[in-house]
Structures are given as structure tokens and as C-alpha cells.
Design brief:
The protein is mainly β and 213 residues long. The chain is built from one helix and 18 strands. The protein starts with a helix and ends with a strand.
Length: 213
Amino acid sequence: MRKLVLLLTAIAATAVAFAASAVAQAPPTITLAIGKPSGGPQGTVTTVRYGQLVKLSGDVSGAPASGEVVDITITPYRGETTIRQARTDSTGEFEFTHRPTIRTSYTARARGGTSAQEPLAFVRPQVTLTPWNKRAGQFIVKMRANAQNASHVVWFQRRINRTRWATVKRVKLRRDLTARFTVRLPSGTRWVRASVPQTPGYLTATSAFVRIR
């Protein structure tokens, strides 16, 4: 009888130890959010211009002492997936900055756990419009983006009123995403801009307004 009691006790102790080990090895809960490095709200989506930074921040539940490695998976639109690393602080939180060049998604992994969230960074091309010869109606337009994914057509527009713009000219960009062109504008003071249509991987974008007399 005593041997049976001892055997049952040993089995129970083994079961408790196994359950405790399973709990200890359970994947952690990982949160992941995205926003701007300058501050402001963090969420599942943010929008930046080509070349600007985004900030990813998150938390690993039950993280050990500071310094736990968190793998950040970076997946650009039609691009190669890469993995970078961040480290937790003493509270289990971590931060990571990245410069997306096209629409990009992110996930975080640590100790077998994966973030439930997959934040997205939407990207707008950088567009600049510069008068080259105002009297002759000559302009230079430049765009910064991945050439294989961005539009190679830019719409030169003039403002009709506060909310309406009229397209004056369709401008074809060269391979280096620049163009020099001439356009005729009505006499008087006009506000003009360059507008780039949306493409897979990029949102629409416009240049700063330019005042022409």
C-alpha cells in the first residue's frame, strides 16, 4: 500500500512539473504597432513620403531581463523579405525604426510567438516641381520612388478654386524619373502642381504648390 501511495505521489509530482514546464514554454503574447518617429498615435497603419522613417513599437509578455531578441520581419511590396532585430528593455517593450521605400508590412517574433498585428506602412513618392523659365512656361519635375513600381506619368495641373484642379498637360518621365517640359498657361497669377497617380505599391502624391505670374 505504501509503495502504491509513493508511486501515485511521484506521478502527480511529475504531472505538475510537466504542466509548469508547458506553461513556462508557452509562446509569449507580442504586440506590434506603427507610427512616426516624431510621436503621435501608434496603430496598424501609417503613411509616409518616400525616404521618411517609420517607428515600430511593441511588447513581449513575460519577457526576461532586458535584452531579449525580437526578430522584425520586413516585407516590401513585390520585394525581398528581410529580418532585422530589436531588443526588449526591462519592461519587455521594444522599438525599431525603418525607412520603407514602398508599401511594406511588418511582423515581430520572439520565443516562438508571433505578433497578432501586421502593421502596414503606405508610401507616397516624393515629387518636386521647379520652374526653369517662368516666362517661357518651362518646368522641371522630379520624382523619388522605385522606378519599376512607380508611375512614369505625371499630371501638370493648375488650380481652378480651393478644391478643384485642372490637368493642363500629361508629362512622361524618363527612366531617371525626371522630365523637363514646356506648357502654356493663361495670363495672370496661377497656382500649379505636379500630381502622380496611384500604382500598386504607391499612393497618389503631389508636389508643393508653385505660384506663377
